[in-house]
Design brief:
heterodimer; A: about 575 residues; alpha/beta; ABC transporter transmembrane region fold; Rossmann fold; 3 domains; four-stranded antiparallel β-sheet; B: about 650 residues; six-stranded mixed β-sheet; three-stranded antiparallel β-sheet; elongated
């Protein structure tokens, strides 16, 4: 349960010392409680007057509240500490995500990234609040209580001391087993609830085949089957936890009975016996509390691990080994004479298409078509060119300066990127359009809207440009989203490199035709990379790169390629054969 | 390690990470006020969102939720519930009795002189309670878990049956977020409510009554005093903390949800933030939102710490009251009846565990309220009655006359006077822009919607009358094929439950998946979602096709099945479809021209109306619009006229 990552937290030593002090005073208060209670009871038992016990009763109340006050202060301190730790963690994580961008999000998934940011950090906070004090209390409180018991009655002390390692051993041995079994249980239950969610998600498919009504019975049957199986395992699984319960309860009973018989022998008197009896449950309680909140701790521990790993991956990518060639903090601004050279670029993924040893050079304002089938490596190449992924091997040079993670930002501010489905933020249409250029004037926006053909949409919207669009509001069609993205590019005239990644692949043909006519003028005077499997775009490109299985298998103008390149010719016959 | 296991098991049963944004159902614009880029401080937006919750409507929904999802299950399983509660109460009685007898025992043993024979009875009792308590606890846990799981089965069935009636539209209506996953989790939340709130609360109430009764046997006035003191603990404090915290918790939840939406939105658009060079701007916005959230958190934490302090002070008072009462009742002489003093002084300590969680349990109800509301909102639709009239017989003619449809909340008609006759075995392609009404036509044809005006019929019978029987006539291949997380065979048998393995293999061969299936580790019995095995989009569609083939329907609707496939894969798939369905009526909804030349007829729908219709050859020769689209699509050299 100990987690090494904890000891790398800032100010951890001070916190641990403070916790130890808190725990020490907590144990003293527990002792005070036991002492005052037994004194009062013993005196009353001896027949003393109730009013004479007021001082003990006051001490009893004071100790009881002392325990609570210490816990109050401790929790307050931990609350603040956990927040300050997670706040800095949150900041680094945000910084990482919004600097590395797509690379992180693609690797971890949008859902996971968001969950890590919002839930993960909260779990770490809970974890810190729980685990630090639990560790310290386990060390301090039983020790102090044990010393007190030894002073009061060394025989009881020995019993409790002997039981302690026994319980720890038991926790270690059975805990592991129980943990595994619990994990197994958890998995089994997950299977069941997944089965249920699975059926719900596929409910329309079932309906299409007329099976949906019958299927309810099978859901119930499966659920019941799992219940019976689960209860069977639970019988054993809960048993091991009950054994620990039995240990603690029996120890109290054993202490009581043993004390009873020794009282008979008059080898002990009532006061110490009663005190020991009050202290014994507290002693075992600390141990049992240590093992509580297992899942919260586990989640927090895992979240802390993932977050630290993610942040570390960013730090290595920034301070990673320097690429060969001339490196500098900013890349030259692109001009009509700039040469972009790609040298032996390679990148392989497990799942994504890869690029394999790609080299080419392009200078000046050119429209470069990248054509190939799905999986040929077009998207990966575009991502590499945009600096959204880092190549495993090879480099990209802008007028001889190598693109590195250090100067990536200055490169990215010169380019615009149009993916297959551009993201429309949940914000007003105006904010979406002016995303790259927030200071745009109304006239500029109106002009851009006209150029990309969004006037109809603006007219349709209840509040025109100030209507909220995107998820959860008015959602835009694929074609409209493309137009919004085009308008962004259109407004920010500083961006002179355009990267297109299958922008029209999933649009209906009539929209595609119209958008093409809007897009082409925007490409004038810019360096354009246009990845697609739609052949008709190639007529409008100055230069074409033909890709197949991550390699460039053809390079040249449309006419050149058509006459001299077999790969291109076969691609044309494959792709052009749509209507035949 | 008892607790890890306990909590692991609890988690097992209540595996409902609160990670999903809670308000996926409320996807109306005014509920999601927080915007990433809004120039006003995010804090303001978050506050506004918090205020916009409509309380009254919420209360009605909660009532409905309780009535539908809590009360009936309480009744249905009252036997098991009563047993679990009985065991739960007994566990605490034994724990308390252990301390009472122990206290009495050592007091008795300390007496001088003492009749030794007297001590054996309390010793026996200590043993009984010491051993009995863990055993009772064990049985209680087993019973309550069994009870919860039984209830879950019934709740699942109920949820499924409600959703089933509305299956086709449910997913479409809540396109954003995984609403179905969230509803499934809501059931988990209700389990939590039972296990963590209802159950411990009832146990505590029962103990409360019991304590008062026992004390009443000794002294009426003291029992009354304790009844008042404990009532503060058992009723007042939980109620107050529920009300006080409720508002903060609601606010926190609204803020958290808004933040969830905001972060998801911006993480999805992260590339744009980076390219625009404004990434740090968002990081700042996010920080201020987090700070606002932290403020609420601080308040919640402070109030929960304060509540705990008060709670403990009350416990201290109870212990002291018991001690002082026992002192005055049994004190005044040496030992004898005074042995009871220690017994009473110690009795309450184990019961603290029963009463302490009440306030947080009460607060917990606020957290689960959303789930209850959401489930309470589900209205069970009236199911279609089984069709008893004459069934349409082959050959099937589909006819639509002046067909019009307007969505209840729509402004204009999606379909607006569509006349169309589809002959048996005809292959029809429907083209049109998105939103032109192509898919609505398919939905009307399957009878999942009924026309607002005009009619669509199969051999003169309106499909909406046929209910589930329609599945014998029309098969659908959707844009995305859903594969159930089970074996390939089971996935195929969705098409025909009675199909033999040979039939499955035959279907696989027809759709060109035989060799792939043969390479699978367990053949037909391979789980489709097992790690490392993922069917591509084209392959999934082929499985859908095999299902339809096994289902043996005469009419098949292809609803843009090739979106997202590259042209070569797409053409190969279409070739397979046309080849295997030569004798069926095919209605293909598509957004481009791939494959349409193999059809008998192409129609274009524009704004709900039929704008163009003819055979591919005819259109290619005589219609200039179609010609221009075709030329554009083929992108061939000869027809390139420049832009």
């Amino acid at each position: 349960m100990l987690d090494r990552a904890l000891f790398e937290l800032p100010k951890i030593k001070r916190i641990l010392v403070a916790l130890a002090v808190f725990a020490f005073f907590e144990s003293l208060s527990i002792l005070g409680l036991a002492w005052s209670l037994s004194s009062a009871v013993t005196n009353l038992w001896l027949g003393h007057h109730l009013m004479d016990q007021l001082i003990w009763i006051l001490l009893l109340f004071a100790s009881f509240m002392g325990i609570q006050a210490i816990r109050f202060l401790r929790d307050y301190m931990l609350d603040r500490y956990a927040f300050s730790c997670t706040d800095s963690l949150r900041q680094s994580l945000m910084h990482t995500i919004f600097s590395l961008g797509l690379e992180v999000v693609q690797r971890h998934g949008t859902g996971n990234t968001t969950t890590l940011l919002l839930e993960g950090i909260e779990q770490v906070e809970t974890y810190l609040r729980l685990v630090l004090s639990k560790i310290v209390r386990l060390v301090v409180i039983p020790l102090v209580l044990l010393i007190a018991v030894f002073i009061l009655d060394w025989i009881s002390g020995i019993i409790m001391l002997i039981i302690f390692p026994f319980i720890i051993l038991y926790m270690k041995l059975l805990g592991q087993m129980a943990g595994e079994r619990a994990a197994h249980q958890h998995k089994e239950f997950q299977v069941l609830s997944n089965h249920f969610v699975d059926s719900l998600r596929g409910i329309d498919t079932l309906k299409f085949f007329g099976l949906s009504r019958e299927f309810g019975k099978s859901i119930y049957a499966a659920s019941e089957r799992f219940r019976i199986a689960t209860i069977k395992t639970l019988r054993i699984a809960i048993l091991s936890s009950s054994v620990l319960d039995l240990f603690a309860t029996l120890s109290v009973a054993a202490v009581a009975i043993m004390l009873g018989f020794r009282l008979l022998d008059e080898s002990i008197v009532l006061f110490p016996a009663l005190t020991v009896l009050i202290l014994a449950p507290e002693y075992f309680k600390t141990i049992r509390e240590f093992a509580s909140d297992f899942h919260a701790s586990l989640d927090g521990k895992n979240a802390l691990g993932s977050i630290q790993k993610l942040i570390a991956s960013y730090e290595t990518s920034v301070s990673g080994p320097d690429e060969p060639g001339q490196s500098s903090a900013t890349l030259p601004s692109w001009s009509q004479q700039t040469e972009l050279a790609v040298d032996k670029l390679s990148l392989a993924f497990d799942e994504y298409e890869a690029v394999n040893n790609v080299s080419f050079a392009i200078s000046g304002a050119q429209k470069v078509g990248v054509i190939g089938m799905s999986g040929a490596g077009k998207s990966t190449l575009i991502h590499l060119l945009g600096g959204f992924s880092t190549a495993a091997e090879g480099s990209i040079y802008v007028d001889g300066t190598v693109l590195t993670s250090a100067n990536r930002a200055s490169w990215q501010q010169q380019l615009a990127y149009l993916p297959q489905d551009p993201y429309v933020f949940h914000a007003t249409l105006r904010e979406n359009i002016t995303f790259y250029y927030p200071e745009a004037t109304d006239e500029e926006v109106a002009q851009a809207v006209a150029i990309v053909g969004l006037e109809d949409l603006v007219k349709d919207l209840s509040m025109g440009l100030d209507t909220k669009v995107g998820e959860g509001a008015r959602s835009l069609s694929g074609g409209q989203a493309q137009r919004v993205a085009l308008a962004r590019i259109c407004l920010d005239k500083k961006r002179s490199i355009l990267l297109f990644d299958e922008p029209t692949a999933h649009l209906d043909i009539e929209t595609e035709l119209e958008l093409k006519q809007r897009m082409l003028p925007l490409m004038q005077g810019k360096l354009v990379f246009f990845a697609t499997h739609r052949l008709h775009w190639m007529h409008d490109m100055d230069h074409i790169l033909v890709m197949d299985e991550g390699k460039i298998v053809g390079s040249g103008s449309f006419e050149e390629l058509l006459t001299s390149n077999n790969s291109f010719a076969s691609l044309v016959s494959q792709l052009g054969g749509g209507a035949s | 390690m008892s607790k890890p296991l306990n909590s692991a098991l609890d988690n097992t049963l209540n595996s409902t990470p609160d990670s999903a944004p809670d308000n996926a159902l409320d996807s109306t614009p005014n509920n999601s006020t927080a915007s990433s880029m809004s120039r006003e401080p995010a804090q303001k937006a978050l506050h506004a969102a918090a205020k916009s919750t409509e309380r009254r409507a919420g209360r009605a929904r909660t009532k409905a939720g309780v009535k539908l999802w809590i009360a009936p299950f309480f009744k249905q399983y009252r036997g098991a519930l009563a047993l679990a509660l009985f065991l739960g109460v007994c566990t605490f009685i034994f724990a308390s009795a252990l301390m009472v007898t122990s206290g009495y025992l050592i007091s008795l043993a300390a007496e001088d002189p003492l009749n030794v024979a007297l001590i054996f009875f309390p010793v026996a009792l200590v043993r009984v309670f010491g051993i009995g308590k863990p055993i009772l606890h064990y049985l209680e846990r087993l019973t309550s878990h069994d009870w919860i799981l039984r209830m879950t089965s019934s709740m699942r069935l109920k949820l499924y049956n409600i959703l089933e009636k509305d299956a086709i539209f449910f997913k479409k209506r809540y396109r954003t977020g995984d609403i179905l996953g969230i509803l499934a989790e809501d059931i988990g939340h209700i389990q939590n409510l039972y296990l963590r709130t209802i159950f411990p609360t009832i146990v505590a109430w029962a103990l409360y009554v019991l304590i008062i009764c026992i004390l009443g046997l000794f002294s009426l006035w003291f029992a009354l005093c304790m009844a008042l003191l404990l009532a503060v603990l058992v009723f007042l404090l939980p109620l107050v903390s529920m009300l006080v915290n409720g508002a903060h918790q609601t606010r926190r939840k609204v803020m958290k949800n808004a933040l969830y939406e905001q972060v998801t939105d911006n993480v999805l658009g992260v590339n744009d933030w980076i390219i625009s060079g404004r990434g740090s701007e968002y990081v700042q916005t996010y920080r201020s939102s987090e700070k606002a959230l932290r403020k609420v958190d601080t308040r919640l934490n402070r109030s929960s710490r304060g509540r705990d302090l008060l709670l403990q002070a009350l416990f201290a008072l109870v212990v002291i009251a018991l001690l002082m009462w026992a002192g005055s009742e049994f004190g005044g002489q040496y030992a004898g009846i005074g042995n009871w003093i220690a017994a009473f002084a110690l009795a309450f300590f184990p019961l603290i565990d029963a009463f302490a969680p009440l306030s947080s349990a009460a607060i917990e109800t606020n957290r689960h309220r959303d789930s209850i509301d959401r489930l309470g909102e589900l209205r069970s639709q009236n199911g279609v009655e089984d069709y008893t009239g004459t069934l349409p017989q082959a050959p099937f003619v589909i006819e639509s006359k002046q067909l019009a449809y307007k969505y209840p909340d729509g402004v204009r008609s999606v379909l607006d006077g569509l006349d169309l006759t589809i002959q048996p075995g005809e292959k029809l392609a429907i083209l049109g822009r998105s939103g032109s009404g192509k898919s609505t036509f398919a939905t009307l044809l399957r009878g999942d919607l009924t026309p607002t005006e005009g009619s669509v019929t199969i051999n003169g019978i309106a499909p909406s009358l046929l209910g589930d029987q329609i599945s014998h006539y029309i098969g659908v291949i959707q844009q995305q094929t859903y594969l159930f997380n089970t074996t390939l065979a089971e996935n195929l048998r969705i098409g025909n439950q009675a199909a033999s393995d040979e039939e499955l293999w035959m279907a696989l061969e027809q759709v060109g998946l035989k060799s792939l299936a043969e390479r699978l580790p367990d053949g037909l019995e391979t789980l489709v979602d097992e790690a490392g095995l993922r069917f591509s989009g084209g392959e999934r569609h082929r499985i859908a096709l095999a299902r339809v083939l096994l289902h043996k329907v005469p009419i098949v609707i292809l609803d843009e099945p090739t979106v997202g496939l590259d042209p070569v894969t797409e053409q190969a798939l279409l070739d397979t479809i046309f080849e295997t369905m030569r004798d069926k009526t095919i209605i293909m909804i598509t957004h481009h021209l791939q494959g349409v030349s193999a059809m008998d007829r192409i129609i274009f729908i524009e704004e709900g109306k039929l704008t163009l219709s003819g055979s591919p050859e005819d259109l290619a020769q005589n219609n200039s619009y179609y010609q221009s689209l075709r030329a554009f699509d083929k992108g061939s050299l000869t027809q390139h006229s420049g832009n």
